[in-house]
Write a structure and sequence with these properties.
alpha/beta, globular, 9 helices
């Protein structure tokens, strides 16, 4: 049976709670699934990488990440040997929250939003480069994993919420959604070029406004960006569908058992 390990930033929690509620269908691919939060998002934003390539393995350079990885996987590091028959689904590289909350977006906007008459218009290329700089160590981590031949899925963060703190503090909603969209598209393209499967937010989770649907928000004081258990449940359904596409032989096993 193939193993699916779900880890990453705090958005992993909603998926883990969705996993508790998720009931595979009889014709679903058989999987051994575990989910565990590996780090708080800012941990990946330091000056130094949170990992190191050591020959044919990747080691964590942050102690808490190493401990949480061991709790999730039962292994001290990442390698083809320790992760045989394993797919990694990682909530990394799409949590734009801290980028969106920079006060700059009260003054700047992409050229396509010139009708809003911001103080300064900037190019998509500049926003993309900001995103790549913001996620530079995460991109390096995925690149290192793919170089080892690890099977990796990048799970995007939930859509921006309409109660996002940046908007409450004065940024225009259109600007925040546009910056998030530009960075996500660029990250998807970069990761897919590495051979990483990118899992966009479930279509059923996105309101007509482009924000996360209100009923899928996590309700908690001082929380303006997480999804809830029902959101995690939608992502779990996506992950099972992706795993069936990646490993159709698993579905053949189910069909043979049913026969």
């Amino acid at each position: 049976m193939r193993r699916l390990l779900i880890g990453g930033d705090s958005h992993t929690v909603a998926i883990g709670r969705g996993l508790q509620k998720f009931k595979p269908e009889p014709n679903d691919i058989p999987l051994a699934v575990s989910a565990y939060k590996l780090f708080e998002f800012p941990k990946t934003q330091g000056r130094e990488p949170f990992f190191a390539r050591d020959g044919e393995r990747i080691v964590w350079t942050v102690d808490t990440m190493a401990a949480n990885w061991a709790a999730l996987s039962g292994e001290p590091d990442l390698s083809v040997e320790t992760l045989k028959d394993t797919t990694l689904a990682l909530c990394m590289g799409f949590t734009t929250t801290n980028l969106l909350r920079k006060p700059d977006w009260k003054r700047y906007a992409s050229w396509r939003l010139r009708r809003l008459k911001p103080r300064q218009l900037i190019s998509d290329g500049l926003i993309v480069q900001m995103g790549f700089d913001f996620f530079q160590h995460t991109l390096g981590f995925f690149e290192a994993g793919r170089a080892l031949g690890l099977e990796m899925i990048a799970v995007e963060a939930p859509p921006v919420r309409s109660d996002e703190l940046a908007i409450a503090k004065g940024a225009r909603a259109e600007v925040i959604l546009d910056v998030d969209r530009i960075v996500r598209l660029a990250m998807r393209a970069r990761l897919e070029a590495m051979g990483v499967v990118v899992l966009a937010p479930p279509a059923d989770a996105v309101a007509e406004t482009g924000f996360l649907k209100d009923d899928l928000r996590k309700i908690h004081r001082n929380d303006w960006h997480h999804g809830n258990q029902d959101y995690g449940l939608l992502v779990m359904r996506q992950l099972y569908d992706v795993m069936a596409r990646l490993h159709p032989q698993g579905l053949r096993l189910v069909a043979n058992d049913a026969a």
